[in-house]
Write a structure and sequence with these properties.
Length: 113
């Protein structure tokens, strides 16, 4: 998977443009993804992606980084040996591109705030 471009409110992944938050896992990009609580990422929000058994979950917290990871989700990931990397979305995109092809990734990317 390769992130071609990210700007506030828009992301281009392998030539496909998305204007809503995205949930990504091997072989799938869910472009109509949303969370139970706008700026809190919880286990139920990423369960589909985690079912693919990623080694890493990359979280794009929005341009200024407002979206937070629920401590219960962080503990769940740690218990299962899934590395959690949470960054403002621009940096999260760089991380995805750097790790792509080397580790099995899932990503939850908030495109705006």
């Amino acid at each position: 998977m390769h992130i071609d471009r990210y700007e506030f409110g828009i992301i281009v992944i392998e030539g496909q443009t998305f204007r809503n938050d995205v949930l990504i896992w091997p072989g799938r990009i869910k472009g109509d993804w949303w969370r139970q609580e706008g700026h809190l990422l919880q286990l139920d929000d990423v369960a589909e992606a985690l079912a693919a058994n990623p080694q890493v979950l990359v979280v794009g917290q929005g341009e200024p980084g407002k979206m937070q990871v629920d401590p219960a989700l962080a503990a769940y990931l740690q218990d299962r040996g899934v590395e959690l990397l949470a960054h403002p979305t621009r940096e999260a995109c760089r991380v995805i591109n750097d790790l792509s092809g080397t580790r099995r990734l899932a990503a939850a990317l908030h495109l705006t705030c």
